[in-house]
């Protein structure tokens, strides 16, 4: 019975914008290289609709709600542009920290890969399980069944215009910001008097610049 290989998390640097391409190539080429999948958590056979992140070759991303020009849209944002997080058995002799040369050549020959982050050029250093878990929790929090985070840059005291709802086209001053609910409390002048109005982020647009963002 084959002893299970010890696997650790490493950060592999790629050209910016090449993260997903490198991820796909690592999985695809591991499957066509005899014995290579054993060094990773990559199954030898692909399955329909598979998520490559599940194989611990992770491009860390999160989904955020962006408000732009008064419109709301969900976008995917890379948490670590230019990096791929990989769990693998890079060292064949843990005591001497002797690198598996076939695995080293395999990773460094992937198109778009620059090298490893951490350690030295000949002895990469793994990150801790806690560091990996912290990052993976952020990735998991943006899965399809999770509520995307709100990405806004409104500020208390700035002036906005309401673009949706019964107070559409009214201008108001932001009095309160609630990031958890995605709502603003705005002071709007109605019949010469100030009245509080609650609106969601996407229902307003900025009409004055402000030096700082939330």
Task: Kindly describe this structure.
The relative contact order is 0.17. 15% of the residues lie in helices and 35% in strands. It has a five-stranded antiparallel sheet with strand order 13-12-11-10-14, with no helix packed on it. Strand 11 and strand 12 form a beta hairpin. It has three helices and 14 strands. It is of the alpha+beta class. It is elongated, with a radius of gyration of 24 Å.
Question: Can you tag this structure with a few keywords?
Answer:
214 residues, elongated, 3 helices, 15% helix, four-stranded antiparallel beta sheet, alpha+beta, five-stranded antiparallel beta sheet
Short description:
It contains 3 helices and 14 strands. By secondary structure, the protein is an alpha+beta fold.
* Order of strands across the main sheet: 13-12-11-10-14
Helix content: 10-25%
- Would you tell me the structural class of the helices and strands? alpha+beta
The radius of gyration is 24 Å
Determine the strand fraction and express it as a percent band. 35-45%
Largest sheet: 5 strands, antiparallel
The number of helical segments is: 3
Report the end-to-end length measured between terminal Cα atoms. 56 Å
Topology:
Elements (H helix, E strand, L loop, with lengths): L7 E7 L4 H13 L25 E2 L2 E8 L2 E8 L4 E6 L2 E3 L4 E2 L1 H8 L4 E5 L11 H12 L8 E3 L7 E4 L8 E8 L4 E8 L2 E8 L3 E3 L8
Parallel strand pairs: 3-9
Antiparallel strand pairs: 1-5, 1-8, 2-5, 3-4, 6-7, 10-11, 10-14, 11-12, 12-13
């Amino acid at each position: 019975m084959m002893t299970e290989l010890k696997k650790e998390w490493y950060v592999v640097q790629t050209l910016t914008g090449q993260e997903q391409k490198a991820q796909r190539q690592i999985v695809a080429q591991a499957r066509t290289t005899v014995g290579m999948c054993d060094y990773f958590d990559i199954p030898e056979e692909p399955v329909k609709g598979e998520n490559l992140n599940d194989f611990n070759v992770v491009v860390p991303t999160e989904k955020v709600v962006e408000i732009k020009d008064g419109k709301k849209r969900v976008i995917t944002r890379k948490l670590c542009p230019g990096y791929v997080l990989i769990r693998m058995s890079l060292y064949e002799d843990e005591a001497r920290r002797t690198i598996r040369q076939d695995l080293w050549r395999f990773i460094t020959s992937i198109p778009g890969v620059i090298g490893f982050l951490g350690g030295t050029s000949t002895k990469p250093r793994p990150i801790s399980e806690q560091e990996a878990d912290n990052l993976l929790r952020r990735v998991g929090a943006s899965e399809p069944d999770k509520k995307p985070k709100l990405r806004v840059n409104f500020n208390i005291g700035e002036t906005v215009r309401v673009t949706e709802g019964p107070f559409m086209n009214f201008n108001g001053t932001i009095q309160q910001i609630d990031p958890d609910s995605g709502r603003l409390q705005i002071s709007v002048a109605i019949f010469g008097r100030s009245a509080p109005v609650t609106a969601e982020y996407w229902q307003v647009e900025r009409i004055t610049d402000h030096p700082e963002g939330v």
